[in-house]
Amino acid sequence: MADTRLASTLSVENLTVQFGDNRVVEDLSFTVEAGRTLAVVGESGSGKSVTSMSIMRLAEMNGATYGGGRILFNGENGKIDLLAASQKEMRAIRGNEIAMIFQEPMTSLNPVFTVGNQIAESLMLHAGMTKSAALAEARRLLDMVRLPDSAELIKRYPHQLSGGMRQRVMIAMALACRPKLLIADEPTTALDVTIQAQILTIIRDLQKELGMAVIFITHDMGVVAEVANDVVVMWQGKKVEEGPVGQIFANPQHPYTQTLLGAVPRLGEMKGEDFPKRMPITVMENGTPRLVGAEHIQKTARYDSAPILSVRDLVTRFDIKKGLLGGVTHRVHAVEQVSFDIYRGETLALVGESGSGKSTIGRTIQQLQEATSGEITFDGKTFAAMSKAERQRLRQEIQYIFQDPFASLDPRKKIGFSIAEPIHTHRLMTSEKEITKRVDQLLERVGLTSAHRDRYPHEFSGGQRQRICIARALASNPKMIIADEALSALDVSIQAQIINLFMELQEEQGLAYLFISHDMAVVEKMSHRVAVLYLGQLAELGSRRQVLETPTHPYTQRLLSAVPVADPGHIRERAVLEGEIPSPIRRVGDEPAILTHREIAPGHIVADGMQQLA
Amino acid sequence: MAGFLIKRFLQAVFVVFVVTITVSFAIRLTGDPALMLTQGAGSVTEADLARIREALGLNQPFLVQYFQFIKGMFTLDFGRSFLGGTPVSGLLAQALPATLSLAFASMIVSIILSIPLGIKAAVSRGKWADQFIRILSLVGLSFPNFWLATMLVLLLSITFRLLPPSGMDNFASFIMPAATMGIILTATNVRLVRTAMLETLQSQYIMVARAKGLSENTVLYKHALRNCAIPLITYFGLQFGALLGGIVVIERVFNWPGLGTLAFDAVGGRDYPVLQAVITVLSLLIVGINLLVDIAYGLIDPRIRTE
Amino acid sequence: AGTMTISSPQDPGSWDPVDTFLVNWASVATNIYDGLTYRGPDTKLVPGLATSWDVLDDGKRIRFKLRTGVKFHDGEAFNADAVKFTFDRLMGEEGSKGPQKSNYAAIDSVEVIDENTVDFHLKQPDPVLLTKLAGYGAMIVPPKYIQEHGEDYFNTHPVGTGPFKFVSYEPKVGIKLEKFDDFWGDKAKIDNLNYRFISEPSTAVAELQAGRVDLVIPPTIPIGMIPTIKNDPNIDIVSSPSPTVYALRFNTKNGITKDAKVRQALIYGVDRQTIIDSILGGQASPIASFQGELSFGYDPAMKPLPYDPAKAKELLAEAGVKPGASVQIDIRGNDATFNEVVQAVASYLQIVGINATIKPYETNVLLNDIIPQGKTGAMFQQSWGGWTLDFDNTAYFMYHTGEKWNPYDSDPKMDELLESQRAITDPAKREEILRNIANYAADRALEMPLYNLNAIFGISHRVKNFTPVPDSRLRLNEVSVD
Amino acid sequence: MSAQTPSATSEIPAKPVRRGKRFARFRQLEFILGILLAGGMCLAVVFSGFLFPDGGEKIDLMARLTPPFTKAAHFLGTDPLGRDVLARVIIGGKISLVVGLISVAGAVVIGVVMGLIAGYYRGFWDVLVMRFADVQLALPFILLAITFIAIVGGGIANTIILLIVSQWVQYARLVRGLVLSLRDREFIQSARAIGVADSRILFSHLLPNLIGPVIVLMTLNVATNILLESSLTFLGLGVNPLIPSWGGMLADGRTYLQNAWWVSVFPGLAIMFTVLGLNLLGDWLRDSLDPTGKTSK
Ligand SMILES: Nc1ncnc2c1ncn2[C@@H]1O[C@H](COP(=O)(O)OP(=O)(O)OP(=O)(O)O)[C@@H](O)[C@H]1O
Ligand SMILES: Nc1ncnc2c1ncn2[C@@H]1O[C@H](COP(=O)(O)OP(=O)(O)OP(=O)(O)O)[C@@H](O)[C@H]1O
Ligand SMILES: [Mg+2]
Ligand SMILES: [Mg+2]
């Protein structure tokens, strides 16, 4: 151990961090060496971000205090203890020798300064460059992260860039002064798989080039398997396990690590299965893992009866007005001529890149959005033919679970109120007592207790909140639930629990789901059929097996190839992904070409016109 | 851009129209200028009054009078004051710069005071510095402007003889009125800056800026301030409008020959042409300020620029 | 030599004599213009631009002999033509646009007899006309200058024959005058005379304290600030009786004040002397009728009703007014001093069992709507005082049936008295009738006479030889400064 | 463009606050101080009838302008009419608080409803309310006051109406801006997705979530309105001078500042303590209405 420590770029020794009396990091030690990547994984709230902020000595600006320990950094001026350094000394190190990519990439760039300006700022400060030299260097850095047309790009503002581009700018910024240590805090969580793949490649290439040490924080085990040399597993503020990546994956010691790895959905796991399958899962109970549930085949879809929902030639467009009295010059073609059916007891997954129109379809069905044209039929009656009262009734029968459970609960209402709201609204019950009883039942159903009824949303963990939203969706006895990326913000272990809950409910009540997601592994686990959306149009539609095992449309293939595999031994050959997603924004009058579809196997429909995807 | 300008123009027309017609109509309900002009005279006959009304053009129906006023406006001819017959445009030419310069000076005083104080309070949220600044700002809210003004005059003009107590002669004349208004505005603005700053300081990009190793002042005054400038500018714009209207009292106390004085005297003397003109100018100014604020938005926040 | 700065509360907007009724016009313009007659601080009528005059044809014609060798500030000569021009203008088109014309309605025509003689032909005798010729609309203006430059120019660039000539004028800010070397009378001792318009009393006083103003003229200085000024070693207060009298008039038509006994009771119930001594700091004198001692028609034998709350209660009881009856007093909202006075009045009324409420109005609303329309409470503020200092100017408008200021009362006997004096040219006889009117009004208790307020000047010690004038018509050719 | 116009001192509810211990203690202090100042002042005002049975009306011209702390009977001295300043300050609170509180309450009710409607429905209502706001802004308060009072007359009720008329716009703008930022938030959308009626969304979801900044603006405005009443008095448009009010006393006392400072300083201090107390309470109330960042039970 002693010799590695000598060579190491950073060694954290017995670090303790607390907010007030609340210790969030306890007695944490690890080291990172030059040229190597250390992955830090762990449950949400286990202190990963706080640790990295402590290394930067930024945690104290959020009110943290350091309980003890040392953070030794082998920098230009020899070894120093970062915890003992003054803020002034730290300023010379920050951004210069240690750089950090923050957890929320979309909000990490200052919206009012140009990209070039923000990169140049560090260079002018730490490398003492003139403004023009710094800008020239910024261009070089943008080229390095493989952003096209850097000369033009340095003059742009963050909002003019897509998420993936912004993340690469952040990386360029972090690497501007050629740091010895890069801390990347969940740099890809918010991004979809294709962009994620691009970014991982870039970081790895640059690490080779610069020989820097990297601390990579993530909860995506697929990503860990791909990038890490070593892994530290954190749980409740403590390190519970550490070791080379192969060893951790192959032979996890600590029960938490085992749970974590056990819950990871792996794409391809269900190869050969016709129906989705409920799997038993391990949960941590009082520090020990326990297996719950049994394997169960989810053969619930009622293809024999008429579909509960049919969507025909749905088009939804958004006008973009220039000026205030100015006319519409551009339109967002969010959804173009999309048709599909959902049957009772069936789960239809809607997948596709960010901005491909998935949410828009859901919102249009839920009447949160006016369709431009097309027909939606629910339970045999078209929306157009429905009276106002019938439409209002639909809001009882179709429920929508929003992507972010926290944001979709009124922060000032107790959750009991929120769950009871659909019952009140549709006057399903009148006696307050009965309603309370029903709310308690629902809470129990989703694994909470009546004691939770009088709490506010912020007092729950992310997984619990998601279950509250599900309870609310169930309160009105719906026939169909639209789940819009309802699982993507969750820990894999919580995610697994909720998938099982969904399937149980489907079994019991014959619920139909429109399951919107970009996580292919989850989709594989729980859907009967899959629809792939590309730029607002249907690229491919078929049974889960058809789409995932014999992907025919090149876009589907590309999507699947980008999914990281949670297996360190796996060598991935992926298609080189360059460039940005084409934009759905078009000038008025410039109509997109409508793809024609072909049925290549019974129920397996694929769009023609692959040349569009060059 | 053309659409934007057209919209702005229509908005200005609407505001000016509603404001002037309301005021012109309402003021005519409050008394007859002919009576006012002849107040000191004893033996005023109805014929005398009719004669004066005719000379003032008041014998015509309201709408005719109003349209004459509108017509005059296009040639920048606002008519003549009922009090002494001075051309109103001349009065405006003198009062407008006086008021504008005072209002600007007050805004500047307030901005210079409230931004550092507000930022200091935000950064030290919950600590004593924060509480102290907030309480100080409330004290500023507790005394009316005329009272504060009088105190300043007693202290600086009469006790120490440093500044002239009133009038608009030179730079020294600006100091007290601008300080009075500035201090009062500061009381609210400190809170505003503090709140806006608190929001911004929680943003990720502020952390990122710190992570770059930038100094605290660069982080606060470059990265943070510019980001909360939009609500601040919006509010300062509104405030400037309110300031123009609320300046009456300060103008009276400091004998400032501005729009407020003009308007106040005009209401008192039922001097319709002057009042209508002042109101028109004020509403145009407010529309103009809104416009400037919108342009400033674009300059400050690129997201708005490209919209 | 030297410069004197005066604070005046209001900018009249035009310096043309025919345009305005504001006293603050007079406090400036008296230095610029002359009338045919002149009335100084002692209120005696003396020759002005006319050296002598004869009243002829039973008062229907007056012949003036004009002063020779008088020049206007622009060099134009003063003569009979200028006089004719002035009055033709006043009674003609230009005068019709302004308020002054009605004051001179008695004048039929002006005839030039020769270069230095003019005859005024009157429609009916006007006993106050000679006084009126000393001020305001009757100021002599330069014909050639006005014809050359036009009326608008004249409004803002006045030219007269007075001791000071116009230099510059900035609306709402001030007007500057300088010594006129060719003045026909006693030439000014100071070189420059600057007026600043300062409407806010404490601001004017602050300027006086700061030494930037030498004289603050009435009605600016609030009584409350008198001690402040007296305590300052550099400045002082001077005062003189003025024409301004204050009264609370009664609604004689409705309510409890319909009964003369009640009105008397209310007058007995208020200790006006104490109010004068304490609130007004002695800067006022008690009055028995609605006029001050300078007024023509003042009767020194008349004594104010004494303060006698017992008598007041007795009268009220007689009139059947129960304790706790209420009256409303309407006042002008912007008069700080009177505001205090009326609160004291209300508290005195409280003592005799009357609950008074006070309702402030914006001045113009009170004067042009509430009072003329008879919409007042039981009592309302009336402050009055014409510069002509003739009781007719008060009594006729206050007491004659149907007059604007008399919304409630109609008394044939009073009307007859009022009309009779107007036709009389013999001053002694007129004075007799005016005194009768005052006595009769007091007997009927038509108003609660409060006091005659002094004209209060705040003055710097560097100003020498200043005589306070009662009527704002300041002429400053005798004043000098250190 | 002109869409988001946050109005006066919009204290946007802060994100879940993570406070240290010291801060929590201060919050308590904030409450205690607020209650002591504002509550104490209100109590004194409410019970002023018992404390000063003569209503501070007793005029004693012989004892006018007695300096403070010299006579036991007039602890804070007397005014130019010899009335007890202490009694008048306490009784004067009645009008000031009534004017301050009712006018703010009225403006809040109207402004909040208008702002909710404008922000939630956008379109026609929005244009209507916001253009009204522009017009209102272009009409200077003092001019509005003079004209309004000249037409309908003075008096407490009219003063309150005037203040409401001129101030609802502030709240409308503030609330509208907040609604605009809240209406597309997911919890509102999810309420709509469930089928919750508009009125319920407005008053049961939006309102509680935007009340924080409104409370802050309210407490500031109580102060402003107490003072505006004094500006009206200053310009000669005030209410019955026999009924004391803090603003009126400040305005009346101004001419005596140099020789009798106590006439206006004490009412000024009364305003200051009340304003301070109300603002402390307002901050406290806003925080306690916000369940975010706290744990229940
Ligand atoms: N500013 C703060 N004040 C108080 N507590 C905080 C603060 N920041 C973080 N915490 C607490 O510290 C703990 C660790 O937080 P941290 O952000 O490090 O979690 P994480 O491991 O990064 O989780 P995630 O995967 O969700 O990002 C959490 O319990 C969190 O509530
Ligand atoms: N209200 C709107 N106005 C204008 N454009 C909109 C609006 N809502 C969505 N869009 C655009 O429509 C397109 C489809 O959006 P949508 O939200 O349906 O994407 P998505 O597939 O759900 O993406 P994600 O995975 O990021 O949630 C995007 O380009 C988006 O910018
Ligand atoms: Mg984190
Ligand atoms: Mg979406």
From TrEMBL, chain A:
Specify the domain of life of the species encoding this protein. Answer: Bacteria
SMART domains under this entry?
AAA (SM00382)
What's the EC number here? 7.4.2.10
Q: Which GO terms describe its molecular function?
A: ATP binding
Q: Which InterPro entries match?
A: AAA+_ATPase (IPR003593), ABC_transp_ATP-bind (IPR050319), ABC_transporter-like_ATP-bd (IPR003439), ABC_transporter-like_CS (IPR017871), Oligopep_ABC_C (IPR013563), P-loop_NTPase (IPR027417)
UniProt topology in membrane:
Peripheral membrane protein
- What reactions does this protein catalyze? glutathione(out) + ATP + H2O = glutathione(in) + ADP + phosphate + H(+)
Compartment list: Cell inner membrane
Keyword entries, A-Z? ATP-binding, Cell inner membrane, Cell membrane, Hydrolase, Membrane, Nucleotide-binding, Repeat, Translocase, Transport
Record keywords: Cytoplasm included?
no
Q: What class of enzyme is it?
A: translocase
Membrane-traversing stretches = none
Instruction: Give all residue intervals belonging to the ABC transporter domain.
Output: 10-261, 309-560
Q: What does this protein do?
A: Part of the ABC transporter complex GsiABCD involved in glutathione import. Responsible for energy coupling to the transport system.
Assembly and binders: The complex is composed of two ATP-binding proteins (GsiA), two transmembrane proteins (GsiC and GsiD) and a solute-binding protein (GsiB).
Identify its protein family.
Answer: Belongs to the ABC transporter superfamily. Glutathione importer (TC 3.A.1.5.11) family.
What protein name is recorded for this chain? Answer: Glutathione import ATP-binding protein GsiA
UniProtKB/TrEMBL annotation, chain B:
Q: What is its main location?
A: membrane
Provide the topology term for how it sits in the membrane.
Answer: Multi-pass membrane protein
Q: Locate the ABC transmembrane type-1 domain: which residues? A: 96-293
Question: What GO terms in the biological process aspect are recorded for it?
Answer: transmembrane transport
Specify the superkingdom.
Bacteria
Q: Does the keyword Transmembrane helix apply?
A: yes
What transmembrane ranges does the database entry give? 9-27, 100-123, 135-159, 171-193, 232-254, 274-300
Q: Which InterPro entries match?
A: BPD_transp_1_N, MetI-like, MetI-like_sf
GO cellular component labels: plasma membrane
Task: Tell me yes or no: is Transferase among this UniProt entry's keywords.
Answer: no
Instruction: Fetch the Pfam families from UniProt.
Output: BPD_transp_1 (PF00528), BPD_transp_1_N (PF19300)
Q: Which UniProt keywords apply?
A: Cell membrane, Membrane, Transmembrane, Transmembrane helix, Transport
Q: Where in the cell is it found?
A: Cell membrane
The record's annotation in PANTHER family points to: DIPEPTIDE TRANSPORT SYSTEM PERMEASE PROTEIN DPPB-RELATED
Q: Which family does it belong to?
A: Belongs to the binding-protein-dependent transport system permease family.
According to UniProt, the name of this protein is: ABC transporter permease
Which organism encodes this protein? Thalassospira marina
UniProtKB/TrEMBL annotation, chain D:
**Highest taxon listed in the record's lineage:** Bacteria
According to the entry, every stretch annotated as the ABC transmembrane type-1 domain falls at 93-282
Q: Which GO terms describe its biological process?
A: peptide transport; protein transport; transmembrane transport
Q: Which Pfam families does the entry link to?
A: BPD_transp_1 (PF00528)
Q: What is its main location?
A: membrane
Coiled coil keyword on record = no
Where located?
Cell membrane
Q: How does it sit in the membrane?
A: Multi-pass membrane protein
Q: What CDD domains is this protein classified in? A: TM_PBP2
Keywords tagged on the record? Cell membrane, Membrane, Peptide transport, Protein transport, Transmembrane, Transmembrane helix, Transport
Membrane-spanning parts: 31-52, 97-121, 141-165, 210-239, 259-281
CC terms in the record's Gene Ontology section? plasma membrane
The record, for PANTHER family, names:
D,D-DIPEPTIDE TRANSPORT SYSTEM PERMEASE PROTEIN DDPC-RELATED, OLIGOPEPTIDE TRANSPORT SYSTEM PERMEASE PROTEIN APPC
**Similarity section:** Belongs to the binding-protein-dependent transport system permease family.
What is the protein name for this chain? Peptide ABC transporter permease
Native species: Thalassospira marina
